[in-house]
């Protein structure tokens, strides 16, 4: 069942001869329980695709449908509510609040949203990510990799329907990167969520059910699970 | 409150500085308000103590008590529940060691403006006076024989009363004959019916007197026309109002700078779906915490400083006024946070996270 759909979505910037089509007509579908990778070189339109899919910017044309709700027809306030309820972002730049400890980052989500993980689930998540002993630390006291793992914990804590990850393993060593992908895969399967990972690291595509390639704003399906394996 | 308080806890120095500035501004506001109240009292406390409705003066005196002159006969045409005659003259009084400006009030002992005696006794003979107890701080005491600047008459302090200052000078209350002797000297007998005004307590002002040569002024109007009173109050109140505006601007600048520094953080939170409302409430809550702490510390410091001030400084703290000004300071600080709220609302999460 499709949880995220992009139907004939285009995104262009500027007008006239200065017009740039960052995303050419795109049709995309991600189902529950799927881990999807979008790979491609820098400037190919991967981030544009991810931010449009996450409702952070509106397309020039076309529809974005999340959980049967058409985001294109909604104002920013309503899109914001859907982001809070449905989407967990793992951003390239850390999405941690500098004056909150790792534990407090989760408490903040408790303040603004219900239906987050239980204490036991959070403990397990900390353990899986190897950050159990970092819970009382502030982001400034964490290494780049630790910050990224805490950011992943924050994205998963709210039990989102969709996880949108922009280069989630960028600051991690290979072993930790594989562990994170394993974790994202198990979260996706166990909780029947959908994870879309934008990355240029082709070593990670082995974990994914579908792999799309983005080149010059054109999104094409490269491989499905059977083909990858 | 969660975000607001945790940010303050994590960045103690930064927020201590902002609170410190607010504390200093509120300290200044409270002190100025104390000074304004003190100077007001210096001018009006004896009049306030009368608890009168109005005062009747001659029309040509332009509401000035010393410039008004009438006879006791005018009392017959006054229609009021209670009335009291008053004569007034300013002088310099000396007890041998000390000299002081005084305002001498000539009154009838059985009328309602007769002051209470806090020490000593009431005057019973001519040239006996009840003095303002503020004179005690200047070295005057019971039994002092006062030499006056404008007359050979000498007055004896037989009692003290509290809250008895008029137009900046301590008051000496005596009977009308004392006042006539001080003012007219040897011609006192000839001017025995002269007074400056009539103080009344009544319900309506319109029918008090039909005499066109007399003017009925409400007590508040009379006080506002005391020399320098309105100008002095306006000056101090303007300073207080400017300080309100200044504190609002200071908070606005501080918070705006802090907000600009945190644009990407707010952008990330907005990208995650945290609403403008929650973030704005957080900024408002933070401002409230900072302002409340700053104002409270300023309030306590003001009271501590006030306890150590020499009596010559005319400061009097009115708690109700201070609490009102404290609340105003907190409100204007919160108004100052509005700029930051507007900035947060305008943040585009996409730009803020570098999309």
UniProtKB/TrEMBL annotation, chain A:
One of its GO terms (molecular function) is ATP hydrolysis activity. The keyword Membrane applies. Its main location: membrane. Keywords: ATP-binding, Cell membrane, Membrane, Nucleotide-binding, Transport. It is found in: Cell membrane. It is a peripheral membrane protein. The keyword Repeat does not apply. SMART domains: AAA. Residues 4-228 form the ABC transporter domain. Signal peptide: none annotated. GO terms for cellular component: plasma membrane. Part of the ABC transporter complex hrt involved in hemin import. Responsible for energy coupling to the transport system. Belongs to the ABC transporter superfamily. HrtA family. The complex is composed of two ATP-binding proteins (HrtA), two transmembrane proteins (HrtB) and a solute-binding protein. This is Putative hemin import ATP-binding protein HrtA. It comes from Domibacillus mangrovi.
From TrEMBL, chain B:
Residues 28-205 form the MacB-like periplasmic core domain. Residues 237-349 form the ABC3 transporter permease C-terminal domain. It is found in: Cell membrane. The chain crosses the membrane at residues 15-36, 238-258, 278-304, 324-345. GO terms for cellular component: plasma membrane. InterPro entries: ABC-4/HrtB_transporter (IPR051125), ABC3_permease_C (IPR003838), MacB_PCD (IPR025857). The keyword Membrane applies. It is a multi-pass membrane protein. It comes from the Bacteria. The keyword Electron transport does not apply. Keywords: Cell membrane, Membrane, Transmembrane, Transmembrane helix, Transport. Part of the ABC transporter complex hrt involved in hemin import. Responsible for the translocation of the substrate across the membrane. Belongs to the ABC-4 integral membrane protein family. HrtB subfamily. The complex is composed of two ATP-binding proteins (HrtA), two transmembrane proteins (HrtB) and a solute-binding protein. This is Putative hemin transport system permease protein HrtB. It comes from Domibacillus mangrovi.
């Amino acid at each position: 069942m499709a949880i995220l759909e992009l139907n004939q979505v285009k995104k262009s910037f500027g007008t006239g001869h200065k017009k740039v089509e960052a995303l050419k007509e795109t049709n995309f579908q991600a189902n529950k329980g799927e881990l999807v990778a979008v790979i491609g070189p820098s400037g190919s339109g991967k981030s544009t695709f991810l931010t449009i899919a996450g409702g952070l910017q509106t397309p020039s044309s076309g529809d974005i449908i999340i959980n049967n709700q058409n985001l294109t027809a909604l104002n920013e306030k309503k899109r914001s509510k859907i982001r809070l309820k449905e989407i967990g972002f793992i951003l390239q730049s850390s999405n941690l609040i500098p004056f909150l400890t790792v534990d407090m980052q989760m408490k903040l989500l408790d303040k603004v949203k219900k239906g987050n993980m239980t204490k036991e689930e959070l403990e397990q998540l900390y353990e899986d990510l190897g950050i159990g002993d970092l819970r009382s630390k502030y982001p400034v006291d964490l290494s780049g990799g630790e910050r990224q793992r805490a950011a992943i914990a924050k994205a998963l804590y709210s039990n989102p329907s969709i996880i949108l990850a922009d280069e989630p393993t960028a600051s991690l060593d290979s072993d930790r990167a594989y562990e994170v992908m394993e974790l994202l895969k198990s979260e996706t399967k166990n909780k029947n969520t959908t994870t879309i990972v934008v990355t240029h690291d082709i070593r990670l595509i082995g974990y994914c059910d579908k792999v799309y390639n983005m080149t010059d704003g054109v999104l094409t399906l490269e491989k499905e699970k059977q083909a990858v394996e | 409150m969660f975000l607001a308080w945790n940010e303050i806890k994590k960045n103690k120095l930064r927020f201590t500085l902002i609170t410190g500035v607010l504390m200093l501004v509120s300290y200044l506001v409270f002190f100025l308000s104390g000074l304004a109240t003190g100077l007001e009292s210096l001018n009006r406390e004896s009049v306030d103590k009368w608890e009168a409705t109005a005062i009747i003066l001659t029309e040509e005196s332009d509401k000035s008590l010393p410039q008004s002159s009438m006879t006791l006969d005018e009392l017959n045409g006054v229609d009021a529940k209670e009335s009291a005659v008053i004569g007034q003259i300013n002088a310099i009084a000396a007890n041998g060691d000390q000299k002081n400006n005084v305002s001498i009030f000539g009154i009838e002992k059985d009328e309602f403006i007769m002051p209470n005696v806090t020490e000593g006794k009431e005057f019973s003979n001519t040239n006996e006076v009840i003095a303002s107890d503020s004179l005690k701080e200047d070295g005057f005491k019971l039994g002092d024989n006062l030499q006056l600047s404008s007359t050979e008459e000498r007055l004896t302090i037989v009692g003290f009363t509290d809250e008895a200052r008029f137009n900046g000078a301590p008051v000496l209350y005596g009977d009308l004959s004392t006042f006539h002797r001080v003012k007219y000297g040897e011609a006192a007998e000839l001017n025995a019916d002269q007074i400056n005004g009539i103080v009344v307590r009544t319900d309506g002002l319109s029918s008090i007197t039909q005499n066109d040569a007399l003017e009925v002024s409400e007590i508040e109007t009379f006080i506002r026309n005391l020399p320098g009173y309105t100008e002095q109050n306006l000056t101090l109140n303007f300073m207080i109002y400017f300080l309100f505006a200044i504190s609002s601007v200071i908070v606005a600048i501080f918070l705006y700078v802090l907000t600009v520094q945190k644009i990407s953080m707010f952008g990330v939170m907005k990208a995650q779906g945290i609403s403008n409302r929650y973030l704005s409430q957080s900024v408002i809550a933070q401002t409230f915490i900072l302002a409340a702490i700053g104002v409270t510390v300023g309030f306590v410091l003001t009271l501590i400083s006030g306890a150590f001030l020499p009596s010559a400084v005319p400061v009097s703290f009115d708690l109700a006024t201070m609490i009102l000004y404290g609340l105003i300071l907190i409100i204007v600080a919160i108004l100052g946070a509005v700029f930051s709220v507007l900035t947060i609302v305008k943040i585009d999460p996409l730009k803020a996270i570098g999309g």
